[in-house]
Amino acid sequence: MRRTSCLYLLLLLTLACGTPKRKVLQATNAPIIRSDTVKINTESVTLALPSIGEAAVTEAQAVAIPPVMSTENRVQLLMRTGINKNADWTEAIHYDVRKPNFVIIHHTAQHSLSQTVRTFQLEHTKVSAHYVVGKDGRVVQMLNDYLRSWHAGRSKWGNITDMNSVSLGIELDNNGREPFPEAQVQSLMTLLDTLKTKYQIPFTNFIGHADIAPTRKDDPSMFFPWKRLAERGFGVWYDESNLVPAPSNFNHVDALRIIGYDVTNLRAAIIAFKRKFIVTDVSEVLTEYDRRVLYNLYRRYF
């Protein structure tokens, strides 16, 4: 009897302390979390996932900074645009790019070289030049010589009505009311010598903005030393020692036109001519002296 009671008591204790089979099966379906299975690098998480504030700043900066296409990419885009999509395409290997045949000299009518550089980099200005020469002689090139800059505007010289396509534009840092410093002039002539030699530009094709746009422009102003440039082979000048009277049948309108001036507005053409060669008198009337100068230039070069 005592042995039976002990066995019964042992059975009760076993049932009370054991885990039912049903509960064991349920426990195996629950996820097992082991802290050493996945180790989290908090530094990498911080770099990969910026805070909300940092993300907002990055997005704001992306909106504020517009995409800028490089000059090379612009040229490539223009070249692709020029391909006829209706034709088969295979590229020839013999060709040239634009060859400049004129140099147009301007003054900036601004207050500093940096201001002019900035002007040529603003989208709304729609103006540019190949070179800007500072008062101290510093030269800044802003476009490749082979590219077409927007410096001449509405202009004409001889029969050419698109001067931008055939010329290089050089801007001199000058407000138009002051002499050009010696360092600037010397630097300009060095640049002109390089361009003339490289592209075989005729000496008669070094002209000013006022020459090609007499109704709109007066640059590079009466202070510009055209005589000095002509003596170096950049532009034309008259022989002051041989100013013979023009013959009675000399047609000054035809002479101006043959030189290159657009005589559609004869008054503007005369003023542009006198601003460059007479300097001291820029009236619209040709005096006897003016006619001698014009005749000398016409006979000497054209």
TrEMBL record:
Keyword match Amino-acid biosynthesis: no
Pfam families: Amidase_2
SUPFAM superfamilies (alphabetical): N-acetylmuramoyl-L-alanine amidase-like
Signal peptide bounds: 1-22
Entry keyword set: Cell wall biogenesis/degradation, Hydrolase, Signal
Documented EC number(s): 3.5.1.28
Reactions accelerated catalytically: Hydrolyzes the link between N-acetylmuramoyl residues and L-amino acid residues in certain cell-wall glycopeptides
GO cellular component: outer membrane
EC top class named in words: hydrolase
GO biological process: cell wall organization; peptidoglycan catabolic process; peptidoglycan turnover
Span of domain N-acetylmuramoyl-L-alanine amidase: 90-221
The protein's name: N-acetylmuramoyl-L-alanine amidase
